[in-house]
Amino acid sequence: MCKHVLNAQVAIRSPCCRKWFDCAECHAETADHPLLQSFEMVFACKKCKKCFRKDAREFEDSDEYCPRCDNHFVLDAMTPKPSLQVEGEDVRVDARMLKDDRVQGEQQRSIFDVKDAADRLG
Ligand SMILES: [Zn+2]
Ligand SMILES: [Zn+2]
Ligand SMILES: [Zn+2]
């Protein structure tokens, strides 16, 4: 259970260093490099402990559930602090993940905030 996304249902494996993190923020705190962006994400369900892959380009409603135990892992992230802005809060993977705006200082967090974490380090 990470301190950023309190209700995280899955861990994600970073494509860059191939370690497991509960969220992109955890990677940002422990790694010395920006989180590599990847369309194919490897998840580990915290309920059944099984790993599975998802392609962010083909993410559908049914993909919000663990393929092994049907645990609903795409949730609105519960974070310790209230978020200052709404943009980027959607935990579903969508096109906004790919936008190139540099956002700084905000507290938006979700397990899919890959680009955001990379920006803050880069
Ligand atoms: Zn890494
Ligand atoms: Zn975290
Ligand atoms: Zn599961």
UniProtKB/TrEMBL annotation:
Keyword presence, Zinc: yes
One GO BP: protein import into mitochondrial intermembrane space
Residue intervals of the CHY-type domain: 1-71
Pfam family, one: zf-CHY
Record-level Gene Ontology MF annotations: zinc ion binding
Keywords for the protein's UniProt record, in alphabetical order: Metal-binding, Zinc, Zinc-finger
Cellular component GO terms, alphabetical: mitochondrial intermembrane space
InterPro entries: Mito_Tim_assembly_helper, Znf_CHY, Znf_CHY_sf
Record's protein name: CHY-type domain-containing protein
Organism of origin: Polyplosphaeria fusca
Taxonomic lineage from the root: Eukaryota, Fungi, Dikarya, Ascomycota, Pezizomycotina
